From TrEMBL:
Residues 85-248 form the Glycosyl transferase family domain. CDD domains: GT4_PimA-like. GO terms for molecular function: hexosyltransferase activity. This is Glycosyl transferase family 1 domain-containing protein. Residues 2-66 form the Glycosyltransferase subfamily 4-like N-terminal domain. InterPro entries: Glyco_trans_1, Glyco_trans_4-like_N, Glycosyltransferase_grp1. Gene3D superfamilies: Glycogen Phosphorylase B.
Length: 260
C-alpha cells in the first residue's frame, strides 16, 4: 500500500538511537512513496542518508491565523505577570539546550543598559529550567526574567501579542544530531505581527526571512543578539514593519487555510 511520511528533523535523531530503531526507520523511509520534510535543511539531512531526491518534497508547516492574530486583548496575561509598562522579549520553547535560552540570558545584562524596563519571558518547561534559573541568579537579573513554566495553549496568542520581540537563537548540536527542523513558533509570533530574531541554523532560514520578517543572528554570538534586540526595541518603525511583513507572509503562504 502506498504511503507518505512526514519528517520534522528531530525524528531523525530519535530514529538512530539504536540499531533496531535505525533499521525500522530506514525501512519505513525507503519504502515510502513520498517523504515530506518541513524545511530545505531537513531535506538535505534526509538526502545525506541516501534516499531518492525525487520522492522528497519540502512542505513548510503552517499556523492557524484565526487563532494567532494581532490586536488580541493582553490585559489578562499582563496582569498575571505584572507586565504593564515593560518592554517584553519572549521565547516560547521547550527548555532544552539547542533552543538557545542561555545565550539570550547572557545578553540581558547588556540589553537592560539600553532598555531599563526590559523583561525577558521564558515560556515552557524542560530539563534546562534549574540551570537557566541559576544563570539568572548568578547574573543578578532576576527582576528582568520571568519563567512562566507550562503555558496554556489558549493564552499563547495573548502572550505573543503582549511581547515586543520574539527571539529563539536555536543552534545545532552536531554531536547529538539535534537541530531545529523549522521553528513553528516564529510563524506564530509573525502571525501576531511581531518581529522575530532567530539563529542562523537548521531550518530556521525557512521560517524567518532575514531583514523582511525578522533578523537572523549567529546563535553563539552574544553581541549579535544584543545588537538585534536593542535595534528592534529602539527602532519601533522597523519592528512594526517586520511584524507586518511576517503577518502578510503567513497569511499568503503559511496559514493552515493556504497549506490545507
Amino acid at each position: 500500500m502506498p504511503y507518505c511520511i512526514l519528517v520534522h528533523g528531530s525524528d531523525l535523531k530519535y530514529s538512530s538511537r539504536s540499531k533496531i530503531d535505525a533499521f525500522i526507520s530506514s525501512k519505513i523511509l525507503k519504502n515510502a512513496s513520498m517523504i515530506l520534510v518541513n524545511s530545505k535543511y531537513t531535506k538535505d539531512r534526509v538526502l545525506e542518508k541516501g534516499y531518492k531526491r525525487s520522492k522528497i518534497k519540502v512542505l513548510n508547516p503552517g499556523v492557524d491565523t484565526k487563532i494567532f492574530q494581532p490586536n488580541i486583548d493582553t490585559h489578562k496575561i499582563k496582569e498575571r505577570y505584572k507586565l504593564f509598562n515593560r518592554r517584553i522579549v519572549l521565547t516560547v520553547a521547550r527548555l532544552v539546550p539547542r533552543k538557545g535560552h542561555e545565550i539570550v540570558i547572557k545578553a540581558i545584562p547588556e540589553v537592560i543598559k539600553h532598555i531599563p524596563n526590559l523583561v525577558y519571558i521564558i515560556a515552557g518547561t524542560g530539563e534546562e529550567e534549574s540551570r537557566l534559573k541559576e544563570m539568572v541568579d548568578k547574573l543578578k537579573i532576576r527582576a528582568h526574567v520571568i519563567f512562566t513554566g507550562f503555558m496554556e495553549k489558549e493564552l499563547l496568542p495573548q502572550l505573543y501579542n503582549a511581547c515586543d520581540i520574539f527571539v529563539m537563537p536555536s543552534y545545532e548540536r552536531q554531536e547529538f544530531g539535534d537541530f531545529e527542523g523549522f521553528g513553528i513558533a516564529f510563524l506564530e509570533a509573525n502571525a501576531c505581527e511581531k518581529p522575530v530574531i532567530g539563529g542562523r541554523s537548521g531550518g530556521i532560514e525557512d521560517a524567518v526571512v532575514d531583514g523582511e520578517t525578522g533578523l537572523l543572528v549567529d546563535s553563539h554570538n552574544v553581541s549579535e543578539i544584543i545588537d538585534a534586540v536593542v535595534r528592534l526595541l529602539k527602532n519601533r518603525d522597523l519592528a512594526e514593519k517586520l511584524g507586518q511583513n511576517g503577518r502578510d507572509r503567513v497569511e499568503k503562504k503559511l496559514s493552515w487555510q493556504k497549506i490545507g
